[in-house]
Amino acid sequence: MEQKYIIGIIVLILIAIIGGTLFMSGGNTSTRADNELVVSAFVHGSEPETGYDPMYGWGDRGEPLIQSTLMKMNRNMTYDNDLATSWSSNNNFTEYTVNIRDGVKFSDNTTLDAEDVAFSYNQAKSTGNTIDLSSLDNASAVNKTTIKFKLNKPDSTFTDKLLHVGIVPSDSYDNNTYGSNPIGSGPFKLAQWDKGQQVIFEKNPNYYGKQPKFDKLTISFQKNEASFNAAKNHELDIAAVPLSYANETIDGYHSFLSESNDVRGISLPMKNNTGETNEDGIALGNNVTADKSIRLALNYGINREDICKGALNGAGVPNYDGIAHFLPWYNNDSTIKDADIDKAKDFLKKGGWKDTDGDGIVEKDGKKASFNLYYSSDAPERQAIAVAVSEQAKEFGIEINATGSNWDEIDKIKFSEPVVWGFGSTDPYVMYGEYYSNQAGIGYNNPSLVNNSAVDSHIDKAMSEPREQSYADWSAVSWDGQTGISPKGDAAWLWISEIKYTYFVDDSLDISKDTFKLQPHGGDLFGNIYDWTRISPINATN
Questions:
Q1: What does the mean pLDDT of the chain come to?
Q2: Which residue from 234, 27, 204 is spatially nearest to 104, judged by alpha carbons?
Q3: How far apart are CA 89 and CA 95, in angstroms?
Q4: Domain of 197: which CATH number?
Q5: Domain of residue 220, residue span
Q6: What is the pLDDT of residues 412-422, one digit of tens each?
Q7: Which residue among 3, 346, 395, 459 is least enclosed by CB atoms within 10 Å?
Q8: Residues contacting residue 91 through CB under 8 Å, at least 6 positions apart
């Protein structure tokens, strides 16, 4: 009797464990309701270390979901008002005035006014962990619905900064607790954060704008293969997957390949490593890539088309200047011919590089044309690019050692070793951080250590011109009329590809491709979440 009782208990425990496992893994069916969404995504799919705090980077390149922003950019790259109702600037773009909606409430029913907006921008500038607000001197409330932004230099791109800072309540904001308990005025509010697993948002009834059609949004912190497998188990409405899965199929799902302005490129430090360091003690310069003939050889010898078709599984677009092809300041006049190995070899020969020992790698002054190329091990597409570039470079005598690492380690060598980076923005000001001479070796800026007065001059001029008029100068940063090499003929970067984002979308869901927003760097899946709708019962195809 006692033995049967024990066996019975064991059976019940096993049933509970199996049932719980099936529940956690989703089994082969979905338990979500039609008015709920379960998604894995890129920028919002990565769990934020500092929580859901815009002052520390949450939502700085996408829809922050919890917080409002002053403006939004539509798919035609023009501005729509969000919290703002209007904006204007003075003639030299050193002062901006923004008017906002009256009567807006945060999710805790407190009132949002101009003081909250001014506080949010001043706080974001002071933390330095969100978008680049270095041109902002200060923001101040003129009255309850008007904010004045005073800048320390002309900046016609400042309108883009109005897109990316989520507004927090000035009276209750606490940088130690806000990330875990955010209060905002956006379409959703935080309901539950299961750290390491998922976050759950619920619709914010106080939201003033177009209401989402879904009452609940769960974002799963699954990535790569785990995200793909979760979709195969029908646990997700949308699954972001690596480019290697671009040609896969899942029953009950359709694939969606989204263009983005996210560009992958390799920094090639332009100065020699003489022992100089930046203020953080990080070494500056590389004795191989400092030779321009090496940089030119790579820019002409690498086959970007092959990398996009092969290593990136067809989900990439060749890129030569770090500017996505659909941006207004893109320059399509580049004279670079992909995979011109003869020209690459000629650059090396004229630069004094020769293979004297017959090992296939050229040398100069007793130094091999050899260097390490670092990439984040968490990014499969960066690994694919690093490996492909290293294999191709051997064909014209350069040895590149593709090296996977984490960002803590990459931080220590980012100005002395080439790195596979991701850049891209609807704001041309990103080029200031990539190329301006006084940004070299600061934070993550200008890792190639570009120091070119012509580049600086074009950027300065662009910053003081009306936005549309400035595009010619932004474009000129990457164009010298002869080589077409970025920036201004220095070949300080080896740009490789624009990245497309791969998703599997449940057939019951329409994410409105006609209104899908241009994805900024990192990807913003939720930019048009207000237009998503369930077109059939969720279990109809699962």
A1: 89
A2: 204
A3: 6
A4: 3.40.190.10
A5: 31-46+187-259+501-541
A6: 999 999 999 99
A7: 3
A8: none
Tell me whether strands 216-220 and 198-203 are parallel, antiparallel or unpaired. antiparallel
Q: How confident is the model at residue 483 (pLDDT cuts 50, 70, 90)?
A: low
DSSP string, 396-447: GT-EEEEEEE-HHHHTTTTTTS-BEEEE--SSTTHHHHHH-GGGTTSTTS-T
Going by C-alpha positions, the residue among 299, 269, 243 that lies closest to residue 419 is 269
Q: How far apart are CA 260 and CA 41, in angstroms?
A: 14
Task: Please say whether the dihedral angle defined by the alpha carbons of residues 516, 520, 524 and 530, taken in this order, is positive or negative.
Answer: negative
Contacts of 294 (CB under 8 A, 6+ apart): 268, 288, 348, 351, 353, 369, 398
| CATH number, position 333 | 3.10.105.10
469 burial level (CB within 10 Å; 0-12, 13-18, 19+) = exposed
Work out how many domains the chain is built from and give that number. Answer: 2
Dist. CA 333–CA 12, nearest whole Å: 71
**400 shares its domain with 474:** yes
Q: What is the pLDDT of residues 351-383, one digit of tens each?
A: 999 999 999 999 999 999 999 999 999 888 999
How many residues does the structure list for the chain? 542
Cβ–Cβ < 8 Å for 365, 313: no
Cβ atoms 239, 248 nearer than 8 A: no
- The single-letter DSSP state of residue 276 is -
H-helix segments, 82-129: 114-127
Amino acid in the structure at residue 514: D
Please indicate, yes or no, whether residues 440 and 490 belong to a single structural domain of this protein. Answer: yes
Output phi, psi for 39, to 5 deg: -135, 145
**Is residue 471 a part of any domain in this protein?**
yes
What per-residue confidence (pLDDT) applies to 54?
95
Whether residues 456 and 364 fall in one domain: yes
| Residue 535: Cβ-neighbour burial (10 angstroms; 0-12, 13-18, 19+) | exposed
DSSP-assigned letter for residue 260:
B
Instruction: Tell me if 168 sits within 8 A of 122, measured CB to CB.
Output: no
CA pair distance 431, 113, nearest whole angstrom: 33
The letter for the amino acid at 265 is G
Pair 229, 350 in one domain: no
Q: Using an 8 Å Cβ cutoff, are 447 and 270 in contact?
A: no
List, as one string, the DSSP characters of 322-357: SS-TTSTT--------TT-HHHHHHHHHHTT-B-SS
Distance CA 31, CA 43 (A): 25
- Asked whether residue 60 carries a pLDDT value surpassing 90, the answer given is no
Tokens for 280? 């953080």
Same structural domain for residues 281 and 404?
Answer: yes
- CB 362 within 8 Å of CB 369: yes
Same domain, 476 and 510: no
Helix (H) or strand (E) holding 457: helix 453-463
**177 occurs within a structural domain:** no
Q: How far, in Å, CA of 179 to CA of 332, rounded?
A: 43
